[in-house]
Amino acid sequence: MLFNSYPFLFLFLPIVLIGFYKIGQYSRPVAGYWLFAASLFFYGWWNIIYVVLLLASILFNFSVGMELSRKSKIAINRRKFILIFGVAANLSLLGYFKYANFFVENLNAIVNQGWHIETIILPLGISFFTFTQIAFLVDAYRGEVKEANFIHYGLFVTYFPHLIAGPVLHHKDMMPQFARHDVCNINWDNISLGVIVFVLGLAKKVLIADELGDYATPVFNVVAAGGHPMLFEAWLGALGYTLQLYFDFSAYSDMAIGLSLLFNVNLPINFNSPYKSVSIIEFWRRWHMTLSRFLRDYLYIPLGGNRRGVFHRFLNLMITMLLGGLWHGAGWTFVIWGGLHGVYLIINHAWQGFREKMSWGQGGWIAYFVSGAITFLAVVVGWVFFRADSIASALSILRGMAGFYGIAVPDALESLWWKFPALLPAHDSILFTTFFPLSGLPSFPAIKIVVLSLVIVWGSPNVAYLAQHINERYRNLYMSIILGLTLGMTLIYMRRVSTFLYFQF
Predict the structure, then answer these.
(1) Which is it for the CA torsion 219, 220, 223, 229, positive or negative?
(2) In angstroms, rounded to a whole number, what is the distance separating the alpha carbons of residues 375 and 359?
Protein backbone atom coordinates (compact mmCIF):
# COMPACT_ATOMS: atom_id res chain seq x y z
CA MET A 1 0.00 0.00 0.00
CA LEU A 2 1.26 3.44 -0.91
CA PHE A 3 0.96 6.67 1.06
CA ASN A 4 0.00 8.39 -2.20
CA SER A 5 -3.02 6.22 -2.96
CA TYR A 6 -6.75 6.58 -2.39
CA PRO A 7 -7.14 3.30 -0.41
CA PHE A 8 -4.48 4.45 2.05
CA LEU A 9 -5.80 7.98 2.50
CA PHE A 10 -9.53 7.28 2.64
CA LEU A 11 -9.72 3.76 4.12
CA PHE A 12 -6.61 2.46 5.84
CA LEU A 13 -5.41 5.63 7.60
CA PRO A 14 -8.79 6.81 9.00
CA ILE A 15 -9.72 3.32 10.21
CA VAL A 16 -6.34 2.71 11.87
CA LEU A 17 -6.18 6.18 13.42
CA ILE A 18 -9.72 6.14 14.83
CA GLY A 19 -9.30 2.56 16.04
CA PHE A 20 -6.01 3.41 17.76
CA TYR A 21 -7.50 6.23 19.82
CA LYS A 22 -10.82 4.50 20.50
CA ILE A 23 -9.15 1.32 21.70
CA GLY A 24 -6.54 3.33 23.59
CA GLN A 25 -9.29 4.87 25.74
CA TYR A 26 -9.79 1.46 27.31
CA SER A 27 -6.43 -0.30 26.95
CA ARG A 28 -3.08 1.03 25.80
CA PRO A 29 -1.60 -2.50 25.32
CA VAL A 30 -4.55 -3.52 23.11
CA ALA A 31 -4.08 -0.31 21.10
CA GLY A 32 -0.48 -1.42 20.59
CA TYR A 33 -1.71 -4.78 19.27
CA TRP A 34 -4.08 -2.90 16.95
CA LEU A 35 -1.27 -0.76 15.50
CA PHE A 36 0.99 -3.81 15.18
CA ALA A 37 -1.72 -5.73 13.31
CA ALA A 38 -2.45 -2.71 11.11
CA SER A 39 1.25 -2.42 10.21
CA LEU A 40 1.34 -6.08 9.22
CA PHE A 41 -1.78 -5.57 7.10
CA PHE A 42 -0.13 -2.54 5.48
CA TYR A 43 2.90 -4.68 4.59
CA GLY A 44 0.78 -7.64 3.47
CA TRP A 45 -1.19 -5.46 1.05
CA TRP A 46 1.73 -5.89 -1.37
CA ASN A 47 2.33 -9.63 -0.87
CA ILE A 48 0.81 -11.46 2.08
CA ILE A 49 3.35 -14.30 1.80
CA TYR A 50 6.14 -12.02 2.96
CA VAL A 51 4.24 -11.16 6.15
CA VAL A 52 5.26 -14.64 7.30
CA LEU A 53 8.88 -13.82 6.49
CA LEU A 54 8.67 -10.51 8.37
CA LEU A 55 7.07 -12.13 11.43
CA ALA A 56 9.66 -14.92 11.44
CA SER A 57 12.43 -12.32 11.31
CA ILE A 58 10.87 -10.40 14.22
CA LEU A 59 10.43 -13.51 16.38
CA PHE A 60 13.96 -14.68 15.68
CA ASN A 61 15.63 -11.36 16.42
CA PHE A 62 13.54 -10.67 19.51
CA SER A 63 14.47 -14.07 20.93
CA VAL A 64 18.16 -13.62 20.16
CA GLY A 65 18.10 -10.08 21.52
CA MET A 66 16.49 -11.17 24.80
CA GLU A 67 19.09 -13.90 25.14
CA LEU A 68 21.88 -11.40 24.58
CA SER A 69 20.33 -9.07 27.16
CA ARG A 70 20.92 -11.67 29.88
CA LYS A 71 24.43 -10.28 30.19
CA SER A 72 25.30 -11.45 33.68
CA LYS A 73 24.06 -14.99 33.11
CA ILE A 74 25.88 -15.88 29.86
CA ALA A 75 29.60 -16.42 29.35
CA ILE A 76 31.25 -13.77 27.16
CA ASN A 77 32.33 -16.28 24.49
CA ARG A 78 28.81 -17.65 24.23
CA ARG A 79 27.38 -14.14 23.94
CA LYS A 80 29.77 -13.36 21.08
CA PHE A 81 28.74 -16.57 19.34
CA ILE A 82 25.05 -15.71 19.75
CA LEU A 83 25.64 -12.22 18.35
CA ILE A 84 27.62 -13.52 15.38
CA PHE A 85 24.95 -16.14 14.74
CA GLY A 86 22.16 -13.56 14.88
CA VAL A 87 23.89 -11.06 12.61
CA ALA A 88 24.91 -13.80 10.16
CA ALA A 89 21.33 -15.09 9.99
CA ASN A 90 20.04 -11.60 9.15
CA LEU A 91 22.72 -11.01 6.54
CA SER A 92 22.09 -14.45 5.03
CA LEU A 93 18.40 -13.65 4.64
CA LEU A 94 19.19 -10.29 3.07
CA GLY A 95 21.90 -11.83 0.90
CA TYR A 96 19.61 -14.53 -0.48
CA PHE A 97 16.76 -12.24 -1.47
CA LYS A 98 18.84 -9.29 -2.61
CA TYR A 99 22.12 -10.66 -3.94
CA ALA A 100 21.65 -14.32 -4.96
CA ASN A 101 20.83 -13.53 -8.61
CA PHE A 102 23.63 -10.96 -8.75
CA PHE A 103 26.11 -13.49 -7.35
CA VAL A 104 25.13 -16.23 -9.80
CA GLU A 105 25.31 -13.85 -12.79
CA ASN A 106 28.82 -12.72 -11.89
CA LEU A 107 29.96 -16.26 -11.08
CA ASN A 108 28.77 -17.37 -14.51
CA ALA A 109 30.75 -14.55 -16.11
CA ILE A 110 33.90 -15.60 -14.25
CA VAL A 111 33.77 -19.38 -14.79
CA ASN A 112 31.90 -19.23 -18.12
CA GLN A 113 29.04 -21.45 -16.97
CA GLY A 114 25.28 -21.30 -17.45
CA TRP A 115 24.11 -21.79 -13.88
CA HIS A 116 20.66 -20.41 -13.28
CA ILE A 117 18.28 -19.80 -10.39
CA GLU A 118 14.76 -18.48 -10.63
CA THR A 119 14.43 -14.72 -10.31
CA ILE A 120 13.92 -13.89 -6.64
CA ILE A 121 11.38 -11.19 -5.83
CA LEU A 122 12.82 -8.76 -3.31
CA PRO A 123 10.53 -8.29 -0.28
CA LEU A 124 9.72 -4.63 0.23
CA GLY A 125 11.72 -2.96 2.98
CA ILE A 126 13.93 -5.98 3.70
CA SER A 127 17.07 -3.83 3.79
CA PHE A 128 15.48 -1.47 6.32
CA PHE A 129 14.00 -4.02 8.70
CA THR A 130 17.16 -6.14 8.50
CA PHE A 131 19.50 -3.26 9.38
CA THR A 132 17.12 -2.09 12.12
CA GLN A 133 17.22 -5.50 13.77
CA ILE A 134 20.98 -5.96 13.37
CA ALA A 135 21.41 -2.70 15.30
CA PHE A 136 19.06 -4.07 17.97
CA LEU A 137 21.16 -7.23 18.36
CA VAL A 138 24.40 -5.28 18.65
CA ASP A 139 22.87 -2.98 21.26
CA ALA A 140 21.52 -5.97 23.17
CA TYR A 141 25.03 -7.42 23.19
CA ARG A 142 26.33 -4.11 24.55
CA GLY A 143 23.73 -4.16 27.32
CA GLU A 144 21.82 -1.15 25.97
CA VAL A 145 18.41 -2.84 25.56
CA LYS A 146 16.23 -2.01 28.56
CA GLU A 147 12.75 -3.14 27.47
CA ALA A 148 11.46 -6.66 26.79
CA ASN A 149 7.94 -6.02 25.50
CA PHE A 150 7.36 -8.05 22.33
CA ILE A 151 4.57 -5.86 20.98
CA HIS A 152 6.67 -2.73 21.38
CA TYR A 153 9.54 -4.50 19.63
CA GLY A 154 7.22 -5.65 16.85
CA LEU A 155 5.97 -2.09 16.41
CA PHE A 156 9.54 -0.79 16.44
CA VAL A 157 10.25 -3.02 13.42
CA THR A 158 6.94 -2.94 11.53
CA TYR A 159 5.57 0.53 12.34
CA PHE A 160 3.98 1.30 8.97
CA PRO A 161 5.13 4.95 8.49
CA HIS A 162 8.77 3.79 8.29
CA LEU A 163 8.59 0.11 7.35
CA ILE A 164 9.16 0.27 3.59
CA ALA A 165 11.72 3.04 3.08
CA GLY A 166 12.97 4.18 6.45
CA PRO A 167 14.12 5.97 8.40
CA VAL A 168 16.38 3.31 9.93
CA LEU A 169 15.12 3.36 13.51
CA HIS A 170 16.91 2.80 16.81
CA HIS A 171 15.12 0.82 19.50
CA LYS A 172 15.97 3.23 22.32
CA ASP A 173 14.36 6.09 20.38
CA MET A 174 11.16 4.23 19.50
CA MET A 175 10.21 1.53 22.03
CA PRO A 176 9.91 4.00 24.97
CA GLN A 177 7.53 6.12 22.89
CA PHE A 178 5.17 3.17 22.37
CA ALA A 179 5.28 2.58 26.15
CA ARG A 180 4.28 6.15 27.10
CA HIS A 181 1.05 6.32 29.11
CA ASP A 182 -0.22 9.29 27.10
CA VAL A 183 0.53 7.86 23.64
CA CYS A 184 -3.15 7.08 23.09
CA ASN A 185 -4.35 10.53 24.16
CA ILE A 186 -5.37 12.78 21.29
CA ASN A 187 -2.93 15.67 20.89
CA TRP A 188 -4.38 18.21 18.48
CA ASP A 189 -1.09 20.05 18.11
CA ASN A 190 0.57 16.85 16.91
CA ILE A 191 -2.35 16.09 14.60
CA SER A 192 -2.40 19.55 13.02
CA LEU A 193 1.36 19.59 12.53
CA GLY A 194 1.31 16.01 11.26
CA VAL A 195 -1.32 16.87 8.64
CA ILE A 196 0.69 19.87 7.45
CA VAL A 197 3.93 17.89 7.14
CA PHE A 198 2.17 14.95 5.46
CA VAL A 199 0.37 17.12 2.89
CA LEU A 200 3.59 18.98 2.03
CA GLY A 201 5.30 15.64 1.47
CA LEU A 202 2.40 14.33 -0.59
CA ALA A 203 2.55 17.44 -2.79
CA LYS A 204 6.29 17.03 -3.33
CA LYS A 205 5.78 13.44 -4.42
CA VAL A 206 2.75 13.88 -6.67
CA LEU A 207 3.32 17.34 -8.13
CA ILE A 208 7.12 17.50 -8.40
CA ALA A 209 8.89 14.14 -8.10
CA ASP A 210 6.56 12.24 -10.44
CA GLU A 211 6.62 15.12 -12.93
CA LEU A 212 10.43 15.07 -12.97
CA GLY A 213 10.36 11.32 -13.52
CA ASP A 214 8.35 11.86 -16.70
CA TYR A 215 11.38 13.66 -18.16
CA ALA A 216 14.31 11.80 -16.60
CA THR A 217 13.07 8.26 -17.27
CA PRO A 218 12.75 8.55 -21.10
CA VAL A 219 16.34 9.80 -21.37
CA PHE A 220 17.75 6.89 -19.38
CA ASN A 221 15.50 4.46 -21.27
CA VAL A 222 16.71 5.53 -24.71
CA VAL A 223 20.33 5.44 -23.53
CA ALA A 224 19.76 1.91 -22.18
CA ALA A 225 18.48 1.00 -25.65
CA GLY A 226 21.77 2.18 -27.19
CA GLY A 227 21.13 5.85 -27.88
CA HIS A 228 23.79 8.55 -27.47
CA PRO A 229 22.39 11.69 -25.81
CA MET A 230 23.53 15.11 -26.90
CA LEU A 231 24.51 17.80 -24.41
CA PHE A 232 21.18 19.20 -23.22
CA GLU A 233 19.44 15.84 -23.28
CA ALA A 234 22.14 14.20 -21.15
CA TRP A 235 21.93 17.04 -18.63
CA LEU A 236 18.13 16.78 -18.59
CA GLY A 237 18.39 13.08 -17.69
CA ALA A 238 21.05 13.61 -15.04
CA LEU A 239 19.49 16.68 -13.42
CA GLY A 240 15.97 15.30 -13.81
CA TYR A 241 16.83 12.14 -11.89
CA THR A 242 18.93 14.03 -9.33
CA LEU A 243 15.92 16.20 -8.54
CA GLN A 244 13.37 13.40 -8.85
CA LEU A 245 15.22 11.33 -6.25
CA TYR A 246 15.57 14.37 -4.00
CA PHE A 247 11.86 15.21 -4.00
CA ASP A 248 10.75 11.56 -3.96
CA PHE A 249 12.83 10.60 -0.94
CA SER A 250 12.22 13.92 0.77
CA ALA A 251 8.49 13.41 0.25
CA TYR A 252 8.53 9.93 1.78
CA SER A 253 10.57 11.15 4.75
CA ASP A 254 8.16 14.05 5.37
CA MET A 255 5.08 11.87 4.96
CA ALA A 256 6.46 9.29 7.38
CA ILE A 257 7.13 11.98 10.01
CA GLY A 258 3.70 13.52 9.47
CA LEU A 259 1.87 10.19 9.70
CA SER A 260 3.75 9.24 12.84
CA LEU A 261 2.85 12.52 14.53
CA LEU A 262 -0.82 11.57 14.09
CA PHE A 263 -0.09 8.69 16.49
CA ASN A 264 1.93 10.84 18.92
CA VAL A 265 5.18 9.21 17.88
CA ASN A 266 8.22 11.20 16.75
CA LEU A 267 10.36 9.75 13.96
CA PRO A 268 13.92 11.04 13.50
CA ILE A 269 14.57 13.55 10.72
CA ASN A 270 16.06 11.67 7.80
CA PHE A 271 16.51 14.41 5.22
CA ASN A 272 17.82 17.95 5.71
CA SER A 273 18.25 19.85 2.40
CA PRO A 274 21.33 17.85 1.29
CA TYR A 275 21.77 19.72 -2.01
CA LYS A 276 22.56 22.87 -0.02
CA SER A 277 25.73 21.15 1.22
CA VAL A 278 29.11 22.73 0.50
CA SER A 279 31.07 19.49 0.99
CA ILE A 280 30.51 15.75 0.60
CA ILE A 281 31.04 15.36 4.35
CA GLU A 282 28.14 17.73 4.92
CA PHE A 283 26.09 16.00 2.21
CA TRP A 284 26.24 12.71 4.11
CA ARG A 285 25.19 14.47 7.30
CA ARG A 286 22.07 15.67 5.49
CA TRP A 287 21.16 12.80 3.09
CA HIS A 288 19.48 9.67 4.50
CA MET A 289 20.73 10.72 7.93
CA THR A 290 19.65 7.59 9.80
CA LEU A 291 21.43 5.29 7.32
CA SER A 292 24.55 7.45 7.58
CA ARG A 293 24.47 7.12 11.36
CA PHE A 294 23.95 3.36 11.09
CA LEU A 295 26.93 2.96 8.74
CA ARG A 296 29.05 5.13 11.03
CA ASP A 297 28.07 3.45 14.31
CA TYR A 298 27.84 -0.17 13.20
CA LEU A 299 30.40 -0.38 10.38
CA TYR A 300 32.88 2.52 10.17
CA ILE A 301 33.62 2.76 13.91
CA PRO A 302 33.82 -1.03 14.48
CA LEU A 303 36.26 -1.19 11.54
CA GLY A 304 38.48 1.19 13.48
CA GLY A 305 37.19 4.57 12.35
CA ASN A 306 39.96 7.15 12.49
CA ARG A 307 41.77 5.61 15.44
CA ARG A 308 44.60 3.93 13.54
CA GLY A 309 46.04 6.67 11.39
CA VAL A 310 45.21 8.37 8.11
CA PHE A 311 45.63 5.35 5.83
CA HIS A 312 43.30 3.11 7.85
CA ARG A 313 40.82 5.95 8.21
CA PHE A 314 40.59 6.34 4.46
CA LEU A 315 40.46 2.57 3.96
CA ASN A 316 37.59 2.31 6.45
CA LEU A 317 35.78 5.15 4.68
CA MET A 318 36.10 3.38 1.34
CA ILE A 319 34.93 0.02 2.73
CA THR A 320 31.96 1.69 4.41
CA MET A 321 30.88 3.52 1.27
CA LEU A 322 31.36 0.49 -1.00
CA LEU A 323 29.15 -1.59 1.30
CA GLY A 324 26.72 1.33 1.55
CA GLY A 325 26.50 1.35 -2.23
CA LEU A 326 25.95 -2.41 -2.35
CA TRP A 327 23.24 -2.06 0.32
CA HIS A 328 21.26 0.08 -2.11
CA GLY A 329 21.21 -2.52 -4.84
CA ALA A 330 22.74 -5.66 -6.30
CA GLY A 331 24.63 -4.18 -9.23
CA TRP A 332 28.04 -2.85 -10.15
CA THR A 333 26.59 0.59 -10.79
CA PHE A 334 25.70 0.81 -7.09
CA VAL A 335 29.17 -0.35 -6.13
CA ILE A 336 30.71 2.34 -8.35
CA TRP A 337 28.37 4.92 -6.84
CA GLY A 338 29.50 3.92 -3.35
CA GLY A 339 33.13 3.90 -4.46
CA LEU A 340 32.78 7.37 -5.96
CA HIS A 341 31.46 8.71 -2.69
CA GLY A 342 34.27 6.94 -0.88
CA VAL A 343 36.76 8.77 -3.11
CA TYR A 344 34.86 12.03 -2.60
CA LEU A 345 35.02 11.65 1.18
CA ILE A 346 38.72 10.80 1.15
CA ILE A 347 39.49 13.88 -0.96
CA ASN A 348 37.25 16.02 1.26
CA HIS A 349 38.91 14.83 4.49
CA ALA A 350 42.38 15.17 2.98
CA TRP A 351 41.64 18.72 1.82
CA GLN A 352 40.15 19.59 5.20
CA GLY A 353 43.26 18.29 6.96
CA PHE A 354 45.58 20.18 4.60
CA ARG A 355 43.63 23.40 5.07
CA GLU A 356 43.77 23.07 8.85
CA LYS A 357 47.52 22.37 8.68
CA MET A 358 48.01 25.52 6.61
CA SER A 359 45.74 27.49 8.98
CA TRP A 360 43.53 28.60 6.10
CA GLY A 361 40.15 30.10 6.89
CA GLN A 362 36.77 29.18 5.42
CA GLY A 363 36.95 31.80 2.67
CA GLY A 364 34.23 34.22 1.62
CA TRP A 365 31.03 33.86 -0.34
CA ILE A 366 32.90 32.99 -3.54
CA ALA A 367 34.56 30.00 -1.85
CA TYR A 368 31.19 29.01 -0.42
CA PHE A 369 29.54 29.18 -3.85
CA VAL A 370 32.35 27.24 -5.58
CA SER A 371 32.34 24.56 -2.86
CA GLY A 372 28.59 24.14 -3.19
CA ALA A 373 28.77 23.93 -6.99
CA ILE A 374 31.57 21.33 -6.93
CA THR A 375 29.70 19.27 -4.32
CA PHE A 376 26.47 19.35 -6.31
CA LEU A 377 28.24 18.39 -9.54
CA ALA A 378 29.99 15.48 -7.80
CA VAL A 379 26.64 14.28 -6.45
CA VAL A 380 25.01 14.52 -9.90
CA VAL A 381 27.79 12.41 -11.45
CA GLY A 382 27.27 9.81 -8.73
CA TRP A 383 23.52 9.70 -9.30
CA VAL A 384 24.09 8.94 -12.99
CA PHE A 385 25.68 5.61 -12.02
CA PHE A 386 23.03 5.09 -9.33
CA ARG A 387 20.22 5.39 -11.90
CA ALA A 388 21.73 3.86 -15.04
CA ASP A 389 20.92 0.25 -15.91
CA SER A 390 24.58 -0.49 -16.68
CA ILE A 391 28.05 1.00 -16.51
CA ALA A 392 27.99 1.52 -20.27
CA SER A 393 24.76 3.53 -20.04
CA ALA A 394 26.17 5.67 -17.23
CA LEU A 395 29.31 6.42 -19.22
CA SER A 396 27.19 7.31 -22.25
CA ILE A 397 25.21 9.83 -20.18
CA LEU A 398 28.43 11.33 -18.81
CA ARG A 399 29.94 11.60 -22.32
CA GLY A 400 26.80 13.36 -23.45
CA MET A 401 27.02 15.76 -20.50
CA ALA A 402 30.58 16.58 -21.58
CA GLY A 403 29.38 17.30 -25.14
CA PHE A 404 31.12 14.34 -26.79
CA TYR A 405 28.00 13.52 -28.82
CA GLY A 406 27.42 17.10 -29.91
CA ILE A 407 24.75 19.61 -29.08
CA ALA A 408 21.15 19.95 -30.22
CA VAL A 409 19.59 23.41 -30.48
CA PRO A 410 16.26 24.64 -31.88
CA ASP A 411 16.23 24.80 -35.69
CA ALA A 412 15.17 28.45 -35.48
CA LEU A 413 18.75 29.23 -34.43
CA GLU A 414 20.29 27.81 -37.62
CA SER A 415 19.98 31.12 -39.44
CA LEU A 416 21.57 32.85 -36.46
CA TRP A 417 24.55 30.51 -36.66
CA TRP A 418 25.18 31.42 -40.29
CA LYS A 419 25.19 35.09 -39.34
CA PHE A 420 27.26 34.71 -36.15
CA PRO A 421 29.16 31.41 -36.39
CA ALA A 422 31.47 32.36 -33.52
CA LEU A 423 28.54 32.12 -31.11
CA LEU A 424 28.30 28.34 -31.50
CA PRO A 425 30.80 25.47 -31.79
CA ALA A 426 31.73 23.83 -35.06
CA HIS A 427 28.68 23.17 -37.21
CA ASP A 428 29.48 19.46 -37.42
CA SER A 429 28.77 19.08 -33.69
CA ILE A 430 25.40 20.87 -33.87
CA LEU A 431 22.04 19.33 -34.66
CA PHE A 432 19.38 21.91 -35.48
CA THR A 433 16.21 20.26 -34.27
CA THR A 434 15.02 20.41 -30.64
CA PHE A 435 16.91 20.36 -27.36
CA PHE A 436 15.96 16.70 -26.79
CA PRO A 437 15.91 14.89 -30.16
CA LEU A 438 16.67 11.41 -28.83
CA SER A 439 13.72 11.16 -26.42
CA GLY A 440 11.41 13.59 -28.21
CA LEU A 441 10.56 15.44 -25.00
CA PRO A 442 9.03 18.92 -25.19
CA SER A 443 11.72 21.50 -24.48
CA PHE A 444 9.95 24.25 -22.56
CA PRO A 445 8.07 22.07 -20.00
CA ALA A 446 11.22 20.02 -19.33
CA ILE A 447 13.42 23.05 -18.76
CA LYS A 448 10.71 24.73 -16.69
CA ILE A 449 10.28 21.84 -14.21
CA VAL A 450 14.04 21.43 -13.77
CA VAL A 451 14.64 25.16 -13.18
CA LEU A 452 11.65 25.44 -10.85
CA SER A 453 12.84 22.41 -8.87
CA LEU A 454 16.34 23.85 -8.51
CA VAL A 455 14.86 27.11 -7.24
CA ILE A 456 12.84 25.20 -4.63
CA VAL A 457 15.84 23.07 -3.61
CA TRP A 458 18.23 25.98 -3.15
CA GLY A 459 15.88 28.83 -2.31
CA SER A 460 13.22 27.48 0.04
CA PRO A 461 13.28 26.14 3.61
CA ASN A 462 12.64 22.44 4.12
CA VAL A 463 9.63 20.98 5.86
CA ALA A 464 11.55 20.30 9.08
CA TYR A 465 12.40 24.00 9.32
CA LEU A 466 8.84 25.05 8.55
CA ALA A 467 7.45 22.64 11.15
CA GLN A 468 9.71 24.08 13.82
CA HIS A 469 8.89 27.69 13.00
CA ILE A 470 5.15 27.58 12.39
CA ASN A 471 3.68 29.36 15.38
CA GLU A 472 0.98 27.27 17.03
CA ARG A 473 -1.48 30.17 16.74
CA TYR A 474 -1.17 30.06 12.95
CA ARG A 475 -1.18 26.33 12.41
CA ASN A 476 -4.87 26.27 11.61
CA LEU A 477 -4.37 29.07 9.08
CA TYR A 478 -1.39 27.33 7.51
CA MET A 479 -3.23 24.03 7.46
CA SER A 480 -6.25 25.64 5.80
CA ILE A 481 -4.11 27.24 3.11
CA ILE A 482 -2.14 24.05 2.47
CA LEU A 483 -5.19 21.82 2.42
CA GLY A 484 -7.14 24.26 0.27
CA LEU A 485 -4.49 24.99 -2.36
CA THR A 486 -2.51 21.77 -2.38
CA LEU A 487 -4.50 18.77 -1.28
CA GLY A 488 -7.16 19.09 -3.98
CA MET A 489 -4.58 19.24 -6.74
CA THR A 490 -2.60 16.31 -5.38
CA LEU A 491 -5.72 14.17 -5.10
CA ILE A 492 -6.50 14.85 -8.76
CA TYR A 493 -2.98 13.93 -9.92
CA MET A 494 -2.91 10.86 -7.68
CA ARG A 495 -4.93 9.03 -10.30
CA ARG A 496 -1.57 7.94 -11.71
CA VAL A 497 -0.18 6.24 -8.61
CA SER A 498 3.58 5.68 -8.60
CA THR A 499 5.81 3.91 -6.10
CA PHE A 500 8.56 5.66 -4.17
CA LEU A 501 12.04 5.20 -5.61
CA TYR A 502 13.51 3.92 -2.35
CA PHE A 503 11.04 1.01 -2.34
CA GLN A 504 13.44 -0.85 -4.66
CA PHE A 505 16.26 -0.68 -2.11
Answers:
(1) positive
(2) 22
Q: Residue 326 in contact with residue 295, Cβ under 8 Å?
A: no
Catalytic residues: 328
Q: Which residues contact 401 (CB under 8 A, 6 or more apart)?
A: 231, 234, 235, 238, 384
What are the distances in angstroms from CA 122 to CA 327, 329, 423, 503?
13, 11, 52, 10
- Helix, strand, coil in percent for the chain, rounding step 5: 75, 0, 25
Question: What is d(CA 201, CA 116) in angstroms, rounded to the nearest whole number?
Answer: 42
Bridge partner list, 275: none
What single string gives the DSSP state of each residue in 459-503? HS--HHHHHHHS-GGGHHHHHHHHIIIIIHHHHHHTTS----GGG
Q: Where are the domains of the chain?
A: 6-186, 187-271+442-505, 276-405
Task: Note the Cα 181 to chain centre separation in Å.
Answer: 32
pLDDT in tens, 346-376: 999 998 888 878 777 777 788 889 999 999 9
Looking at 5-163, list the stretches that DSSP marks H as alpha helix, in order from N- to C-terminal side. Answer: 6-7, 13-24, 28-44, 49-69, 76-111, 126-141, 150-158
Give CA–CA dist 281/269, Å, rounded.
18
Q: With a cut of 70, which residues of the chain have pLDDT below it? A: 71-74, 412-428, 464, 467-485, 495, 505
Instruction: Say what the pTM is.
Output: 0.90
